[in-house]
């Protein structure tokens, strides 16, 4: 058996069913072995699409996503996606070919120092030098990717190693003496946390992406205590977006209720989040009244990194919540809830209705038509924030977006990965005209595998989020954000791929458009021509605090046609 | 504040890259770095001198611990021995200078390890402060070259830097 075959065997032993990838010279031996393998391969049209799809596959399924690429350019095309998976703590294993060992370091054809390049954007990486190491490396890679704080792991395998005769064993043990994630929270700290919550007058529970797998325990704990729950962008769906205890999303484009709750809170229980600056604003002004911050995270390095923490709990959010639940009591929070309720009813998410079709109403219409029962993916920009605001998902692993890295272009490949992970689900990609064009080549992948994904492009003719910042902070000097003069006809573009295209331009056609998308038997690309100068609100300007929240567009200018 | 940190690592290729890369990326201040093998096959020991406030140091330690190949990190705040080795090539024009340099050498208990017509190489072992003073003392005579190893450190007494025992199976 050759190294390539051993590699696939090792992957099978890890339970891998799908690999997203793109072949090339240095990975050809593995592709040759793949020809006889039961593992399904999804051929993408750009390696970036592959790594994003693997990321979404992982996030939607809770399993490890796998992507494969050739050396040099192929592997380097993974860089953005690996960084994205790293920032959003997603378990991905990337396998790359490299030039034969004898040529490494000689600037050989399609050689790149891929382990060097990806060192800071992977949880760990390997350059396999010995064919018999393949089973151990694969086992370790999956273990590292999926345990502790999940993240991407890259395995770089020189071509001659793939071709070498394998004489080793698959019965291998992990050799990771320096890797022992702490899973169980410290009982003393858990006790202290419960005590602090019991004494609190204005407590809040904030949860992030690290609680997606702990949704059941989270729900039970929240209901038992009656704590108000705030979910970050990555935490959306970890707690049902239609639950009376839910206050919405915090941060730059979060709800008034969520941001005010944090601002006035005396005790904050934060679970599986890392206090990103889009959540905290200026850290020194974050949660100024909180005398106790309890931070639960599996990564000790996140605790105290940005925000002062009074009760650190290192552990798996699920296990910690289980322990918290054991000692949880119904808290007396009536007065606090009266305040929260007041903010919530007084400042719901809203937008100024306009004669033009608007992104918010498009998303809301899809939410109503589906009952929120879909896996949503997004690009990055205004449409992403509108999706977070107006498509409150109710189930975990169902809002897939690029949080930490803010990677434009993930929408379509995320939809592909999600659909492959959970084919029975309705998958909707709310995308931007800018974002979509960064990875639209993956429409071919949609066609090739007959993936029923609904791509909803909120075409505002602009790099809208950048335009919004120029509007607010750069005296409306719209530098290089105009797309409408050169955007394709998205519906016809779809048709060129053999995908159903839909175009909606007028407000009165909204419902018809939504139905056309949802009733279509198969994939759809639907372009909704939306108002071009919309802004996302509420907004806390970068580096600001809850008190600096802008609720509405500063002043309305006359409206010009889109 | 200056901190001396010992790190026990698996001596895999690039492990040093991971550590220096981490420092560069997170903007930690690295004053010196010394590395060598240990008595245990497969393990290397690195000594880092880092400056920063308490919060930064906490991050340095935690971020180092995140690296898969790092087995143990210790910030030497306890009583410890710290040494570095320094070679200085100093210009000595005439007999007078040679004698003056010899005085300095004796005062610091340095050794002469090479003698040439116009220069000497002196070897000194000591803590960083001592090495600094030594170099300053020689400076007026015309230093031609300096090579320092960077600090190495070890806890005093019975405390030993060793692999933490297995906490729990994952
Ligand atoms: C790859 C990448 N390049 C640049 C940016 C900066 N950026 C953030 S939002 C945005 C505009 C996105 O435009 P579009 O996809 O049309 O979304 P809209 O804001 O208009 O809804 C840009 C350029 C980014 N996040 N990612
Ligand atoms: Mg746009």
Automatic annotation (TrEMBL), chain A:
CDD domains: TPP_AHAS (cd02015), TPP_PYR_POX_like (cd07035). Pathway: Amino-acid biosynthesis; L-isoleucine biosynthesis; L-isoleucine from 2-oxobutanoate: step 1/4; Amino-acid biosynthesis; L-valine biosynthesis; L-valine from pyruvate: step 1/4. Pfam families: TPP_enzyme_C, TPP_enzyme_M, TPP_enzyme_N. Keywords: Amino-acid biosynthesis, Branched-chain amino acid biosynthesis, FAD, Flavoprotein, Magnesium, Metal-binding, Thiamine pyrophosphate, Transferase. GO terms for biological process: isoleucine biosynthetic process; L-valine biosynthetic process. The keyword Plastid does not apply. Residues 1-114 form the Thiamine pyrophosphate enzyme N-terminal TPP-binding domain. InterPro entries: Acetolactate_synth_lsu (IPR012846), AHAS_TPP (IPR039368), DHS-like_NAD/FAD-binding_dom (IPR029035), THDP-binding (IPR029061), Thiamin_PyroP_enz_cen_dom (IPR012000), Thiamin_PyroP_enz_TPP-bd_dom (IPR012001), TPP-bd_CS (IPR000399), TPP_enz (IPR045229). It catalyses: 2 pyruvate + H(+) = (2S)-2-acetolactate + CO2. One of its GO terms (molecular function) is flavin adenine dinucleotide binding. Residues 379-527 form the Thiamine pyrophosphate enzyme TPP-binding domain. Its EC number is 2.2.1.6. Residues 190-324 form the Thiamine pyrophosphate enzyme central domain. Its cofactor is thiamine diphosphate; Mg(2+). GO terms for cellular component: acetolactate synthase complex. Binds 1 thiamine pyrophosphate per subunit. The keyword Transferase applies. SUPFAM superfamilies: DHS-like NAD/FAD-binding domain, Thiamin diphosphate-binding fold (THDP-binding). Belongs to the TPP enzyme family. This is Acetolactate synthase.
Automatic annotation (TrEMBL), chain B:
GO terms for cellular component: cytosol. The lineage of its organism: Bacteria, Thermotogati, Deinococcota, Deinococci, Thermales. One of its GO terms (molecular function) is acetolactate synthase activity. The keyword Amino-acid biosynthesis applies. Its EC number is 2.2.1.6. Pfam families: ACT_AHAS_ss (PF22629), ALS_ss_C (PF10369). Dimer of large and small chains. Catalyzes the conversion of 2 pyruvate molecules into acetolactate in the first common step of the biosynthetic pathway of the branched-amino acids such as leucine, isoleucine, and valine. Keywords: Amino-acid biosynthesis, Branched-chain amino acid biosynthesis, Transferase. Coiled coil: none annotated. GO terms for biological process: isoleucine biosynthetic process; L-valine biosynthetic process. Pathway: Amino-acid biosynthesis; L-isoleucine biosynthesis; L-isoleucine from 2-oxobutanoate: step 1/4; Amino-acid biosynthesis; L-valine biosynthesis; L-valine from pyruvate: step 1/4. NCBIfam families: acolac_sm, PRK11895.1. InterPro entries: Acetalactate_synth_ssu, Acetolactate_synth/TF_NikR_C, Acetolactate_synth_ssu_C, ACT-like_dom_sf, ACT_dom, AHAS_ACT, AHAS_small-like_ACT. It comes from the Bacteria. This is Acetolactate synthase small subunit.
């Amino acid at each position: 058996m050759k190294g390539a075959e051993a590699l696939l065997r090792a992957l099978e032993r890890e339970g891998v069913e799908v690999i997203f990838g793109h072949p090339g010279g240095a990975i050809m031996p593995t592709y040759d072995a793949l020809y006889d393998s039961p593992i399904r391969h999804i051929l993408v049209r750009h390696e970036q699409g592959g790594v994003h799809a693997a990321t979404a596959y992982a996030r939607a399924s809770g399993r490890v996503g796998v992507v494969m690429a050739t050396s040099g350019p192929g592997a380097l095309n993974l860089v953005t996606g690996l960084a994205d998976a790293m920032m959003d703590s997603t378990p991905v294993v990337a396998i790359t070919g490299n030039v034969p060992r004898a040529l490494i370091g000689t600037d050989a054809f399609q050689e790149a120092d891929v382990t060097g390049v990806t060192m800071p954007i992977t949880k760990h990486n390997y350059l396999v030098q010995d064919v018999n190491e393949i089973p151990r490396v694969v086992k370790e890679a999956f273990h590292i990717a999926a345990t502790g704080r999940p993240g991407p792991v890259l395995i770089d395998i020189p071509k001659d190693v793939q071709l070498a005769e394998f004489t080793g064993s698959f019965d291998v043990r992990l050799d990771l003496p320096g890797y022992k994630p702490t899973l169980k929270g410290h009982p003393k700290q858990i006790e202290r946390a419960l005590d602090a919550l019991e004494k609190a007058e204005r407590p809040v529970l904030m949860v992030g992406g690290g609680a997606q797998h702990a949704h059941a325990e989270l729900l039970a704990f929240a209901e038992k205590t009656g704590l108000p729950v705030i979910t970050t962008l990555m935490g959306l769906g970890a707690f049902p977006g239609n639950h009376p205890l839910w206050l919405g999303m915090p941060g730059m484009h979060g709800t008034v209720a969520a941001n005010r709750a944090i601002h006035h809170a005396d005790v904050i229980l934060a679970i599986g989040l890392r206090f990103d600056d889009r959540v905290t604003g200026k850290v020194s002004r974050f949660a100024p009244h909180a005398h106790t911050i309890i931070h639960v995270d599996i990564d000790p390095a996140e605790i105290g990194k940005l925000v002062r923490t009074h009760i650190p709990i290192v552990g798996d959010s699920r296990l910690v919540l289980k322990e918290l639940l054991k000692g949880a009591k119904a808290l007396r929070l009536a007065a606090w809830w009266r305040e929260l309720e007041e903010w919530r009813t007084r400042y719901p998410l809203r937008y100024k209705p306009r004669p033009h079709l608007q992104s918010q109403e498009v998303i809301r219409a899809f939410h109503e038509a589906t009952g929120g029962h879909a896996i949503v993916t997004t690009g990055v920009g205004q449409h992403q924030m509108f999706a977070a605001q107006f498509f409150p998902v109710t189930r975990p692993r169902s809002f897939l977006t690029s949080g930490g890295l803010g990677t434009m272009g993930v929408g379509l490949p995320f939809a592909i990965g999600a659909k492959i992970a959970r084919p029975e689900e309705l998958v909707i990609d709310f995308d931007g005209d800018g974002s979509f064009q960064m990875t639209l080549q993956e429409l071919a992948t949609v066609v090739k595998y007959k993936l029923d994904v609904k791509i909803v492009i909120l075409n505002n003719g602009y790099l809208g989020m950048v335009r919004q910042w120029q509007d607010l902070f750069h005296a409306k000097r719209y530098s290089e954000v105009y797309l409408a003069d050169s955007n394709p006809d998205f519906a016809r573009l779809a048709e060129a791929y053999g995908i159903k295209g839909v175009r909606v331009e007028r407000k009165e056609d909204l419902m018809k458009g939504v139905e056309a998308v949802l009733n279509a038997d198969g994939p759809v690309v639907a372009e909704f021509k939306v108002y071009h100068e919309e802004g996302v609100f509420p907004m806390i300007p970068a580096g600001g605090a809850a008190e600096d929240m802008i609720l509405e567009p500063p002043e309305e200018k006359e409206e010009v046609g889109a | 504040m200056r901190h001396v940190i010992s790190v026990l690592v698996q001596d895999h290729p690039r492990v040093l890259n991971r550590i220096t890369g981490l420092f560069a990326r997170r903007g930690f201040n690295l004053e010196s770095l010394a590395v060598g093998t240990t008595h245990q096959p497969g393990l290397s020991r690195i000594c880092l001198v880092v400056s920063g406030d308490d919060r930064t140091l906490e991050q340095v330690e935690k971020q180092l611990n995140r690296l898969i190949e790092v087995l143990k990190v210790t910030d030497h705040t306890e009583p410890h021995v710290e040494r570095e080795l320094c070679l200085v090539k100093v210009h000595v024009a005439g007999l007078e200078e040679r004698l003056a340099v010899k005085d300095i050498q004796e005062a610091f208990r340095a050794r002469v390890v090479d003698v040439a017509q116009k220069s000497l190489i002196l070897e000194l072992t000591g803590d960083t402060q001592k090495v600094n003073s030594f170099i300053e003392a020689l400076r007026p005579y015309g230093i031609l070259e300096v090579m320092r190893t960077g600090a190495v450190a070890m806890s005093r007494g019975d405390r030993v830097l060793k692999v933490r025992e297995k906490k729990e199976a994952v």
